[in-house]
Structure formats: C-alpha cells, structure tokens
Amino acid sequence: MEVALLISTYNWPEALDVVLQSVERQTLYPKEILIADDGSGPETKAIIDKHKDKFPVSLKHFWQEDKGFRKSEILNKALAATSAGYIVQIDGDCIVHRDFVKDHIALAASGVYLYGSRINIKPQSVQNVLENKTSDFSLFSSSIKNRSRNLRLPIFQNFYKEKAVFSNKVRGCNISYWRKDLIAVNGYNEEIKGWGREDSELVLRMLNNGVKGKRLRYGGILYHLNHLEKSKDNLSRNHQIQEITIRENKTWCDNGIDKYIKESV
C-alpha cells in the first residue's frame, strides 16, 4: 500500500519546522510527503527546503498565491498530483507522535476513513515548544492538556468499530482515507472558502457514498499548537453549503478535484 502524508500550511514556518522534525522521527515512513501551502511567504519555502534532504522519501511543496483562505483548493491540487492510494492528513500546526503514520496504516481498511483526536499544547507552552523544537511529550508533560489522549495502546485500537454516521469528533488535522474514495465524491468542495466546514462537508459526502468512519483512539496521536483563531467571516455561508449536502444527501460537488486530474493527464 502506497501512502502519502498530506500537510496543510499557511504562514507559520516556525510551527512547520517542528512538525516536519516530528515527521522525520516516524517509525514507518509514507511513500511521500505533500505540503499543501495556501500562499505562505518565502520563510515557509526555506523551512521546507531545509528539511528536504533529511527525508528518505520525497517531500513535495504545492503552493498557490495568497488570495484569502483557499484550503480546499490547495488540498485538491496536492491530492491530484499524488499516485499514492492512501492519504494520511494533518495540519501544519500539529506535531505527530513517532508512531502516528504507523497507527493510521495499521488500521486502514477498505471503504473506511479514520479520524483521530488531538492533544492541545497549552498556550503558555507554545513558544517554549517552538524554541526548543520539542516533538516528544510524555504522559505527564506539563505542556499538554487532554493527557488521556496521550496513551498509545495498540491492543485497544480495534475496540472502535466503523460506523455509517457522522461524528462531530472528525477533524481534518488527523484523518486518513483512500484516495479513490475522495475522488469518487470529487474531493474537497472549493465553493467552501474561508475557515470552517471544508473537512466535515467532504466527510459527509463520503458517508453518503457508502464510506464508513472509524475512530482512531489509543494511537494516531498528535499535538496541536495553540494559536489565534482564524477569521470566521465565511462560516455561515460554508455552513449553508454543508446543510445542503446533508439535506440533499449529496455525494458529489461540482467545483472539486476533477479539473486538476484532467489537467494532469
């Protein structure tokens, strides 16, 4: 099974530096690492270039001009460009446990997407984590909240079963899925602009198309760097798009990944 690790980012190179350092420490590497960059400046490119030679696998940088929050678009562009069959997806402000990719791969199953949780790094600890490039947190670390989520117990990971209903615990910062299942619903909906609902609306269309969700617990551990909230000016409109997807049981979005796949043929 060929796996790609997809990392979305925007203008926080200090965080991305630590995140990529944590990826370097993985016990099991993906086939390639994809950086979906929604218009960051040259500092982010410099961080990516610094890490490229440190990985035994390809690290690819997908960039688009900064024209506001267009995360759906840059994710589609990166996903269209990979041939990997399975995608593990995180955000560029999430430091991953050394067995993160291994856990997602171990539980991958046909017709199922996985969703994990996140451990929040306390606001007062973020700067210290960035300065010291901390990528390993013990269960009793004073830097983290939600400590019970920091338990990695593979024997318990299969206690959770796949379900055909949406869970409000789904977060795009810790999710994995089969690329063919994403393409079958035309990927991310690019009508969703600005913060909010891009991940949940995609998952809803996948569920409507017969894919089931399974919670990844006691594994797939990652640590979220606290930051100022992004503008939610477009949230109401994005929520309306999601409500239509629910009401009409949509399995397809018109403005999605297909145009990039056609261009790459």
Give an overview of the whole structure.
The protein has a 7-stranded mixed beta sheet, sandwiched between helices. A 3-stranded mixed beta sheet has the order 5-10-7. It has about 260 residues and is of the alpha/beta class. It has 9 helices and 10 strands. The protein is globular. Helix 1 runs parallel beside helix 2. The two termini are about 25 Å apart.
Topology of this protein?
Layout: E1 3-9, H1 13-24, E2 32-37, H2 42-52, E3 58-63, H3 71-81, E4 86-91, E5 94-96, H4 100-107, E6 112-116, E7 119-121, H5 126-132, E8 174-178, H6 179-183, H7 198-208, E9 212-216, E10 222-225, H8 235-247, H9 258-264
Parallel strand pairs: 1-2, 1-4, 2-3, 6-9, 7-10
Antiparallel strand pairs: 4-8, 5-10, 6-8
Helix pairs in contact: 1-2, 3-9, 7-8
Supply database-style keywords:
seven-stranded mixed sheet, 9 helices, alpha/beta
Brief overview:
With 265 residues, the chain is an alpha/beta fold. Helices cover 32% and strands 19% of the residues. It has one domain: Alpha-Beta Complex (Spore Coat Polysaccharide Biosynthesis Protein SpsA, Chain A).
Beta-strand percentage? 15-25%
Number of helices: 9
Could you tell me the CATH topology label: Spore Coat Polysaccharide Biosynthesis Protein SpsA, Chain A
Examine the secondary-structure arrangement and name the CATH architecture: Alpha-Beta Complex
**Number of DSSP-assigned strands:** 10
Span between N and C termini? 23 Å
Point out poorly predicted stretches.
none
Mind telling me the CATH superfamily name? Spore Coat Polysaccharide Biosynthesis Protein SpsA, Chain A
Structural class: alpha/beta
Mean pLDDT: 94
Helicity, as a percent range: 25-40%
Main-sheet strand order equals 3-2-1-4-8-6-9
Order of helices and strands: EHEHEHEEHEEHEHHEEHH
Kindly report the oligomeric state of this protein: single chain
User: What's the CATH class label?
Assistant: Alpha Beta
Count of discrete structural domains: 1
Please tell me how large the radius of gyration is.
Answer: 17 Å
> Largest sheet, described in full?
7 strands, mixed
Shape: globular
